[in-house]
Structure formats: C-alpha cells, structure tokens
Amino acid sequence: MYSSKPLLGSSPGRTLGLTLALVSAFAFGGSGTAAKPLIEAGISPLHVVWLRVAGAAVVLLPLAYRHRDAVLRRPGLLLGFGLLAVAGVQACYFAAISRIPVGVALLIEYLGPPLLLGYVKFVQRKPISRGAAVGAGAAVAGLACVVEVWNGLSFDALGVLFALGAACCQVGYFVLADAGSRGDRPVDPIAVSAYGLLIGAVLLTAFTRPWNADWSVLSGDVVMNGHAVPALLPAAWMILIATVLAYLTGVIAVRHLSPPVAGVVANLEAVVATVLAWFLLGEHLGVPQVAGGLLVLTGAFAAQASKPAGAGEVTEPAGAPGAGADRAGAPLVEASTARTSTGT
User: Fold this and answer.
1) Which letter does DSSP use for residue 41 in this model?
2) 3-39 pLDDT, tens per residue?
3) What angle do CA 270, 273, 275 make, to 5 degrees?
4) 0.85 exceeded by the pTM?
5) 318 or 79: whose pLDDT is higher?
6) What span, in angstroms and rounded, lies between the C-alpha atoms of 297 and 294?
7) Helix axes 45-59, 189-208, angle to 10 degrees
8) What span, in angstroms and rounded, lies between the C-alpha atoms of 246 and 113?
9) C-beta separation of 270 from 296 below 8 A
10) Is residue 327 within 8 Å of residue 28, measured between CB atoms?
C-alpha cells in the first residue's frame, strides 16, 4: 500500500477505515444470502441485480439531490464510478459465468486486489508494502479454496476475458473511490455512492430490461432454510444493507486506508457470504472452505497491519473500493448456484 497521509500510520484514522472496510465487506457478503431465495422463487439473477441497484439508487435519491453540485464538479468521476464500480462489475461477471464455472469466474474477479497493487506501483508509480503484496496473494489463494475452484475447471477464452473485465472494474471501484477527494474539486463519498448507483441503475435498466420480470414474486413468500418469509424481507436486506450500507461504508473506508489495503480486506466478502449461507440457507462448509477462509483472514490481516511503504515521508492527503464487489456482483451471482460459497 502507499502512504496517503500521516493518519494512515496512526490509530484513529486507520482504525476507523478498517472498521468501515469490515462493515462494507460484511454488508456486501450478505447479498448472496438475501438474493438466493428471490432467485429460487422465480426472479432471474439479472433482474435481482437490477432490483438491488435500482432500489439502492431510489433510497439514495434524497442524498443525490442534496449533493447535486457534485455533478458539476466531477461529472467524469461519477460517470466512471457508475459505469465501472456498479454496472461494469455486474455485467462482466454475469457474462463470465455464462461461459465458465462460477468458482473460476469468482476467483478471477477477486484478482482485483493484486491488479490494484500493480496499478498503484506501475501506473501511479507509488510504493507498496511487502505486507500488502503478501496479504493479497494469501487472500487470493484462500479464495481459491473458498470457491472450490477445482470443482469445475474449464477454459473459455471469452469467458476468462469477461471475468478479467470484472476484476478490472473492481480495480476501478477502489481507484475512483480514492480519487474523489483528490484535486481542487473533492466530492463527498456519499455523492460518489449515490450517483454511482443512480448511473449504474440507468445502465443496467437498458441491459436487463426489468419490465420483462415477474415482480409479483415480491408480494408473496420465499423460502430460507426451510422457513417461509415475506419476499420483501430479503429484498430489503439486499437493497438497504448489501448495497446502500455496503457502498457508503466501502467508499469512505478507502479514504482512511488506501485502495490496496481496502481491496485486500474486501476479499472477506466471500468468506462472510459462505458463513451466512451456512447459517441462513443451510449450506454446509467443507474443510477446504474453512481452511481457505482462514487464509483469506490471514491475508487481510497481513495487509492492514503492514507498515505503509515510505512511512515517515510526508505526502499529500489521500484522495478520494466498489465487486463487488461484487464489487458487488460476485456474491450475488454466487448465490444463484447450488454451491456452498458466497455472496459480486
């Protein structure tokens, strides 16, 4: 990771950033558990994604109106966040899983943190710490176990390219979240999230054609682990917690940590999703998944606990992570399968 400002090495700012990053990871991780009952009830995965993003955009409309000046200050940033961090991740991930196994696509998408390290080092030409690099590698290895990538390896060049596109869009989540507070016209992280989701919803509307969905499912009950619950309950959870809360806390977290560290911590989403599916959907964890989860936790801890590269140097404040990322698509799509893992 790179040093963004003195507080990165001090406890208050770093602790706040880490706390928010963990909240974001836990919130994003619950999307699959909330989405799966809706998908099993008859709403297609694409339409569930649209419901998630469009619902969150509607909830954040008052905040978007309050921060409407951001459209004039940084229109390119907001458009890029909506295109990459919201719509891009979703579209590329869905295209990928139509051609390659879900576990393989999920693992490739979560190459985002290592790619982010490469972007910081070779494009931004900023130093990264050894701990962040090692943590990213350990987290990716752990994710391979969590998604049981060996249970369906196949190679499809176009599918792999789509998955890599999702990983690159995940990088865009963290880079653009970080860029929002840089320059002479900083943008509030709430505005970045609100307008990103609003723009993403518009783009996904054209892509998913929600008017073709059977939305009457939402007026009935769905099944979670053998129990009937109102369909609006998981829908509200998916919108309010797994999207609104997840994006708001995730974007703010990057401004107190750094994109590389926030990116590695975001890998916890897959672990959280797997555990929630265990408790709430009755899916069972195997030994490789438990071991993989521990490895992801180890990688995240190594990254966030590492000393910033170039510590001691005074650098300009960090600007303004997001999968998901799923950012946010991966966990959601993962829930549409019968696999144990996730929540993208």
Assistant:
1) T
2) 334 333 445 677 888 888 889 888 887 777 788 889 8
3) 110
4) no
5) 79
6) 5
7) 140
8) 18
9) yes
10) yes
Closest CA to 186 of 77, 261, 62, 85: 77
Please tell me the distance from the alpha carbon of residue 27 to that of residue 22, in angstroms, as a whole number. 8
3-state secondary structure of 182: coil
Tokens matching residue 230: 């109102």
Count the residues in the chain.
344
